[in-house]
């Protein structure tokens, strides 16, 4: 579940009622925890944060964080401890033992298969299907993974210890672990292994088994085929689930590559043209769009179906021109009918959706040229999500006396709701609500120094609640918090800079579109420029922004504000209020 970065939606301090509810839920879910241990995990006065997040597959997960370490997470209203908690209380969950090399696969997202489970002399722990359980390694009781039992213990024996054993949710070294202090597991000797130490034979056998496993891991990384086969067979015994699938995919890729190498570049481009043509007709073009200009069909539909990492270029094919390619498609396959509706301009007027060639076409998996860029530059693993941006207010030196009772010093950042709550608490604690009119607050010396101008000291004796709050926020330093998926919140002073889109003139009435501040929202300017280049079929250039470090300006030919707006709003889901310059888009209309 946490093998890939997760997206944080909100990170807030837990309320008193929620803290009590969490304690009660933990007591019911983990009866082995004593009252003192529960108080250590959910202290009454120490700060405990609630993290609302989404895993990379879209699952909603609630994470509870204590002392900057995740301690519990909740999925489908079921609580699970993290490895940080299990290292303190290793007996909290029933545990299945496996070999150290298997941990690498579990961290990568694989489940624990039964052939990889080491059965101790006392037998497997008694679990039912769906029960929470932990995974430990040989010679160490410190758990390294948490999950749910795929089948009951009885069924495991009935299946001959084959098949899926534990569905893994969280592991040591995954992104949830990385959200904490990244400490390693303690060394907790296994009681069974200590007992075996008295019996030399049993100890020797287990050591030999470990050596064999280590050999398998070393051999797996060797490039020779025979060694790879040995490693694969050994890892099948150790539960490595996806080995066969990955090998099959690699073999298919190798076969495709060798076939492509045998073809000439012209034949490869012809095949790609046909693939993009069929893909566009089957997935992009709607009957309501007909008649469709052939140039629009190429630009808006065929280019978007081009495999990632490749570029569609008709001039490099045997057809040389789009019109010739479409004529060939019409005569050979009889899928489309092209007609010149106006002089010199061709349009697709008819598509045979029942054509066997079109119906039998299946979509290739690598056809997303507009794959979403990632903030950290990785390619295509995780879809881009815009940051969660929240306005905050920082306590200034002048207002510090007003926030002292809430233990908020100069520089502390607060949400507007927290500011209102603290100010309201201060007014009530000091009994400043006007007895005659409860809509007003009486000004005491502290409020006078914090909120009033010098000219108002003798004149203003009370303020309305709204005026009180607005004056407080007005005298605080405005900040913003940006939360990117799977990363800790970033807090900066001032307003967040919007993505700025402008149009400039170059030379003899030529226009270019300029974009800056993309980096603020986690967008890679190079990737955005490449996507726009494919969309509008115009050249793009990256230029450094004068006076700004690590900032790049994207320049693309022509007035492309409409296309830029569609990309940012629809594709990247950036809120409109964070984009500046969309109003400069050319307005369509009939020329008189």
Describe this structure in words.
By secondary structure, this protein is α+β, with helices and mostly antiparallel strands. It has four domains: 7-179, Roll (Sulfate adenylyltransferase), CATH 3.10.400.20; 265-360, Nucleotidyltransferase, domain 5 (2-Layer Sandwich), CATH 3.30.420; 388-483, SWIB/MDM2 domain (MDM2, Orthogonal Bundle), CATH 1.10.245.10; 497-584, Translation Initiation Factor Eif1, CATH 3.30.780. 34% of the residues lie in helices and 23% in strands. The chain is built from 20 helices and 25 strands. The strands form six sheets. It has a six-stranded mixed beta sheet with strand order 7-11-10-9-6-8. Strand 3 (60-66) and strand 4 (69-75) form a beta hairpin. Helix 8 (200-220) packs across helix 9 (225-237). The chain is flat, with a radius of gyration of 32 Å. Mean pLDDT is 80; it is low at 197-206, 208-242 and 367-382.
- Strand % is 15-25%
Please provide the count of β strands.
25
Q: Remind me, CATH topology of the largest domain?
A: Sulfate adenylyltransferase
Averaging pLDDT over every residue, what do you get?
A: 80
Task: Please work out how many helical segments DSSP would assign.
Answer: 20
């Amino acid at each position: 579940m946490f093998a890939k970065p997760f997206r944080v939606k909100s990170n807030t301090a837990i309320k008193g009622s929620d803290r009590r509810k969490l304690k009660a839920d933990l007591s019911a879910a983990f009866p082995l925890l004593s009252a003192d241990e529960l108080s250590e995990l959910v202290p009454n006065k120490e700060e405990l944060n609630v993290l609302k997040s989404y895993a990379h597959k879209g699952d909603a997960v609630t994470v509870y964080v204590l002392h900057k370490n995740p301690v519990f997470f909740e999925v489908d209203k079921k609580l699970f401890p993290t490895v940080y908690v299990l290292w303190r209380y290793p007996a909290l969950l029933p545990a299945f033992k496996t070999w150290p090399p298997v941990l690498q696969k579990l961290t990568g997202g694989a489940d624990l298969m039964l052939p990889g489970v080491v059965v101790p002399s006392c037998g497997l722990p008694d679990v039912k299907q769906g029960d929470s359980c932990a995974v430990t390694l040989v010679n160490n009781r410190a758990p390294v993974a948490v999950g749910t039992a795929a089948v009951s213990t009885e069924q495991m024996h009935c299946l001959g210890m084959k098949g899926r054993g534990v569905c893994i949710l969280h592991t040591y070294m995954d992104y949830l672990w990385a959200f904490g202090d990244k400490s390693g597991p303690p060394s907790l000797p296994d009681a069974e292994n200590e007992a075996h130490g008295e019996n030399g034979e049993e100890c020797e056998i287990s050591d030999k088994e470990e050596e064999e496993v280590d050999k398998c891991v070393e051999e797996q990384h060797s490039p020779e085929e025979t060694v790879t086969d040995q490693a694969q067979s050994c890892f099948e015994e150790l539960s490595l689930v996806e080995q066969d699938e990955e090998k099959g995919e690699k073999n298919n890729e190798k076969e495709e590559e060798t076939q492509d190498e045998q073809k000439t570049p012209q034949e490869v481009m012809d095949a790609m043209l046909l693939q993009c043509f069929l893909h566009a007709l089957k997935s992009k073009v709607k009957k309501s769009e007909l008649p469709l200009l052939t140039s629009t069909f190429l630009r808006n539909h065929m280019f978007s179906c081009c495999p990632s990492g490749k570029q569609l270029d008709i001039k490099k094919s045997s057809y040389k021109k789009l019109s010739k390619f479409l004529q060939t498609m019409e005569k050979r396959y009889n899928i489309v009918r092209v007609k010149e509706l106006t002089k010199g301009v061709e349009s697709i007027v008819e598509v045979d959706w029942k054509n066997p060639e079109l119906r039998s076409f299946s979509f290739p998996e690598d056809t997303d040229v507009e794959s979403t860029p990632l903030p950290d530059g990785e390619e295509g693993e995780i879809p881009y999500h815009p940051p969660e941006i929240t306005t905050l207010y920082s306590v200034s030196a002048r207002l510090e006396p007003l926030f002292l009772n809430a233990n908020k010093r100069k520089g502390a950042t607060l949400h507007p709701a927290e500011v209102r709550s603290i100010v309201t608490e201060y007014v009530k604690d000091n009994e400043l609500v006007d007895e005659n009119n409860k809509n007003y607050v009486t000004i005491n010396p502290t409020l006078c120094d914090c909120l009033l101008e010098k000219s108002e000291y003798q004149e203003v004796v009370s303020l309305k609640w709204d005026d009180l709050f607005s004056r407080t926020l007005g005298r605080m330093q405005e900040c913003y918090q940006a939360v990117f998926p799977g990363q800790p919140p970033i807090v900066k002073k001032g307003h967040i800079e919007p993505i700025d889109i402008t149009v400039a003139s170059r030379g003899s009435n030529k226009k270019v579109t300029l974009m800056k501040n993309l980096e603020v929202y986690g967008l890679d300017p190079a990737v955005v420029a490449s996507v726009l280049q494919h969309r509008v079929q115009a050249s793009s250039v990256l230029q450094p922004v004068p006076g700004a470090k690590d900032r790049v300006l994207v320049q693309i030919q022509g007035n492309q504000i409409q296309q830029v707006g569609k990309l940012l709003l629809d594709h990247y889901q950036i809120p409109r209020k964070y984009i500046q310059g969309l109003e400069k888009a050319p307005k369509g209309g009939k020329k008189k």
